[in-house]
């Protein structure tokens, strides 16, 4: 029965083409038209309540866990209150775009053009942000030196404190907010929170009623009893705390869906699921609940996480290709007292994922010196399936990194992962973890062109000027990010989600106003591998070997290495000079020095919520569009070609001395400073992990990764031949899941350029 149910639920996910649903947008707009003149946070709460009360709901065939954003699986919902312009621009092209296409009916296009767009044009979050950006910031953005994110959708990249709701019940949270609102009647946050919390209870009860209606006409007795159980559980968890694992999973999912309705945001992540759900699991086991039933419920929950796909603009989809929803689950790690936190549920999460093998949940295993070898082997066994899941995080460097940011020791030990690889303290952090991307290679390109006709140019002057430009553009990036930050505070508060983040209720403040215990702004430095390779080659060929002049090299770059002589030069630049990823100190130290400078510059800035900026280094899929904005570079890379993937990964094909050399190169970076998260991709031949010997070798490799104090690593374990065949015959590979960046996606749903990038990554053996 378990396999039949899971196969059915997986099949249902992909029966229909991806569509755009206007339902949330219409209900949100309907409410906004009725609340003119009221405080924004009250309007937001009432709009969310209107959605929860009126949105169409369903319980799909075979489901044990109820709750959907849309009637049809994997439908995209839009937020014109954030940015109505890109939607209007792409109405007639979104179905055919190369990355993440969606179908929208002609009727819905008409509704958008005539009803939704006219209302939101001129009063959206995007309008607010664009009106405040200085020309110098806009120019830097147009040059692709940095990109500001979160300007066209609600704010996610956060982990709610779901353990509080699960252990106390939703009714407890409602009563607490009632008391606070009564004692502080002037506080709009408490009023707004109560509006949306009570609407949440009504929304859950709608599912209880629907399940009863379905059960009344269900002829199959087994399915009828399942529907009545959904009704019972839904009715209970709308008010009371859950007691069983099934009840806890159901309330957990309802809260996630409601948070999605409120903000329609990416990466409202899950946190340490094996920790806050363990007591429910243990209680069921002690009561004699069959383990197979618990597994079935858990696998149903995993499948639900794949129902939520995010619709982005065509440009944004190139940066976040393949619908990275961000249901990231952290497993293992440390207890508050610093011992291993691995438990039976940690194993079960890996085991049940092996049965599902979908892009979500984005499992992550936390590694430390106390990890049990059987759990490490189970982790490798799961990696061997080739979906790129789980990814690995290193407590031995991440916990000290958080301590460096003023996080308490107990909170640091409790860290989890937001979205792709962003690091956060669950239920206590509003980190704006993906607020901006900073293109370090573009800064180098602009610097080199400045010196083209300089007669006294030196390598040292180039490095100094690169750092000066980093300083200048980081200040502009921080200013722009703070404008986006304020925009979310003024236009898009999230009172429901804020109820599940410390210390919002005690402060009486939304997270967007600074209610969280920890307030960061996370920005990513991208291009360090190409920058290291380029500057090393430049240093050698121009200043040490003196084979060509600096001006001649710049001429070659300006011409994109066109012509026979310049092509010979390009081949020499690629093959003659060592590259980052091969454990050459001279190359690696260049990147380490500049990335450290960037990190230290970023952390100087503060945000409007009283927190600091925290640097990271990961790309999502932005290494392709950011590369398209950079001309030819001295590492032999041609204009518009992609940058190195991941963030800390070597340039594709340039890591020639094996996977251990890659680790050694990355370990020379100051990985304690990238406390917003970093990313290392490594690709292995499937033969490497065959048999118990393969598991043992990979487990030892992960222990070496841990001892080298690298934050993160993830793997594609699939042959290039298989991927090439999938490009040619996509109909045969509908279920093929691969690692893109800090997330996995269906290979056939990726654009050609991303597919080629994954194929080109060096395939290592151990």
TrEMBL record:
Q: Where is the Glycine radical domain?
A: 646-766
Statement: the UniProt record of this protein carries the keyword Heme: no
List UniProt keywords, sorted A-Z: Lyase, Organic radical, Transferase
- State the Pfam families in the record: Gly_radical, PFL-like
Which residue numbers delimit the PFL domain?
4-638
PROSITE patterns referenced in this protein's UniProt entry, alphabetically: GLY_RADICAL_1, GLY_RADICAL_2, PFL
The keyword Transferase belongs to this UniProt entry's keyword annotation: yes
Q: Which is one Gene Ontology cellular component term of this protein?
A: cytosol
Q: Glycine radical (modified residue): where?
A: 742
Mind telling me which InterPro entries this protein's record contains?
A: Form_AcTrfase_GR_CS (IPR019777), Gly_radical (IPR001150), GRE (IPR051215), PFL2/GDeHydtase_fam (IPR010098), PFL_dom (IPR004184)
* Residues annotated as transmembrane: none
Q: A GO molecular function for this record?
A: lyase activity
PANTHER family with a match to the protein in the record: DEHYDRATASE PFLD-RELATED (PTHR43641:SF3), FORMATE ACETYLTRANSFERASE 3-RELATED (PTHR43641)
- Name of the molecule in the record: Formate C-acetyltransferase
Q: Which organism is it from?
A: Fonticella tunisiensis
């Amino acid at each position: 029965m378990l396999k039949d149910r899971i196969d059915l639920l997986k099949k249902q996910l992909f029966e229909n083409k991806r569509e755009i649903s206007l339902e949330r947008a219409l209900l949100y707009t309907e409410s906004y038209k009725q609340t003119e003149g009221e405080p924004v946070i009250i309007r937001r709460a009432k709009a969310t309540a209107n959605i929860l009360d009126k949105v169409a709901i369903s319980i799909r065939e075979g489901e044990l866990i109820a709750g959907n954003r849309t009637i049809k699986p994997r439908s995209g919902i839009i937020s014109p209150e954030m940015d109505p312009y890109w939607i209007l621009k792409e109405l007639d092209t979104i179905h055919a775009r190369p990355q993440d296409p969606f179908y929208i009916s002609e009727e819905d296009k008409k509704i958008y053009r005539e009803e939704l767009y006219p209302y939101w044009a001129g009063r959206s979050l995007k309008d607010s942000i664009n009106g405040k950006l200085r020309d110098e910031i806009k120019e830097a953005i147009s040059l692709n030196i940095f990109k500001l994110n979160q300007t066209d959708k609600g704010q996610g990249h956060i982990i709610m404190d779901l353990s509080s709701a699960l252990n106390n019940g939703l009714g407890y949270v409602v009563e607490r907010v009632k008391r606070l609102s009564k004692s502080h009647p002037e506080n709009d946050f408490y009023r707004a929170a109560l509006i949306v919390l009570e609407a949440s209870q009504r929304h859950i009860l709608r599912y209880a009623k629907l399940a009863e209606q379905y059960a009344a006409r269900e002829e199959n007795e087994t399915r009828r009893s399942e529907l009545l159980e959904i009704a019972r559980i839904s009715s209970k968890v709308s008010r009371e705390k859950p007691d069983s694992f099934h009840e806890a999973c159901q309330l957990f999912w309802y809260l996630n869906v409601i948070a999605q309705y409120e903000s329609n945001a990416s990466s409202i992540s899950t946190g340490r699921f094996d920790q806050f759900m363990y007591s429910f699991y243990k209680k069921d086991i002690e009561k004699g609940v069959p383990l197979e039933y618990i597994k079935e419920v858990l696998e149903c929950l995993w499948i639900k996480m794949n129902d939520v796909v995010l619709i982005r603009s065509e440009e944004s989809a190139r940066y976040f290709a393949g619908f990275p929803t961000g249901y990231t689950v952290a497993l293992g790690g440390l207890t508050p007292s610093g011992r291993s936190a691995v438990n039976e549920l940690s194993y079960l999460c890996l085991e049940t994922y092996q049965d599902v093998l979908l892009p979500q949940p984005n499992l992550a295993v936390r590694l430390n010196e106390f990890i049990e070898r059987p759990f490490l082997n189970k982790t490798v066994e799961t990696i061997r399936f080739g979906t790129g899941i789980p990814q690995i995080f290193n407590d031995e460097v991440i916990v000290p990194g958080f301590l460096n940011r003023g996080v308490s020791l107990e909170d640091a030990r409790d860290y989890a992962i937001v979205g792709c690889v962003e690091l956060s303290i669950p239920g206590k952090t509003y980190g704006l973890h993906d607020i901006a991307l900073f293109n370090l290679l573009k800064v180098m390109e602009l610097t080199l062109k400045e010196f083209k006709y300089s007669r006294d140019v030196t390598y040292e002057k180039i490095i100094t000027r690169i750092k000066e430009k980093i300083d200048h553009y980081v200040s502009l990036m921080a200013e722009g990010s703070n404008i986006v930050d304020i925009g979310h505070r003024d236009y898009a508060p999230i009172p429901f989600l804020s109820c599940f983040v410390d210390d919002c209720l005690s402060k009486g403040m939304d997270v967007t106003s600074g209610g969280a215990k920890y307030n960061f702004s996370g920005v990513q430095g991208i291009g360090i591998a190409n920058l290291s390779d380029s500057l090393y080659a430049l240093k050698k060929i121009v200043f040490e070997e003196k084979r060509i002049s600096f001006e001649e090299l710049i001429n070659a770059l300006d011409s994109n290495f066109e012509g026979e002589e310049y092509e010979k030069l390009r081949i020499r630049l690629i093959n003659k000079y060592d590259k980052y990823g091969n454990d050459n100190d001279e190359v690696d130290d260049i990147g380490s020095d500049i990335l450290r400078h960037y990190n230290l510059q970023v952390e100087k800035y503060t945000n409007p919520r009283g927190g600091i900026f925290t640097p990271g280094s990961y790309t999502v899929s932005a290494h392709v569009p950011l590369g398209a904005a950079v001309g030819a570079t001295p590492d032999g890379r041609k204009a518009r070609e992609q940058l190195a993937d991941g963030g800390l990964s070597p340039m594709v094909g340039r890591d020639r001395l094996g996977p251990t050399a890659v680790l050694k190169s990355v370990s020379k970076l100051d990985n304690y400073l990238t406390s917003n998260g970093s990313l290392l991709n490594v690709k292995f031949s499937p033969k490497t992990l065959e048999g118990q010997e393969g598991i043992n070798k990979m487990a030892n490799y992960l222990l070496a990764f841990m001892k080298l104090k690298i934050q993160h690593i993830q793997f594609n374990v699939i042959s290039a031949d298989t991927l090439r065949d999938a490009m040619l015959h996509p109909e045969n590979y509908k279920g093929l899941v691969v690692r893109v960046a800090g997330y996995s996606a269906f290979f056939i749903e990726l654009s050609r350029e991303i597919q080629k990038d994954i194929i080109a990554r060096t395939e290592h053996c151990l």
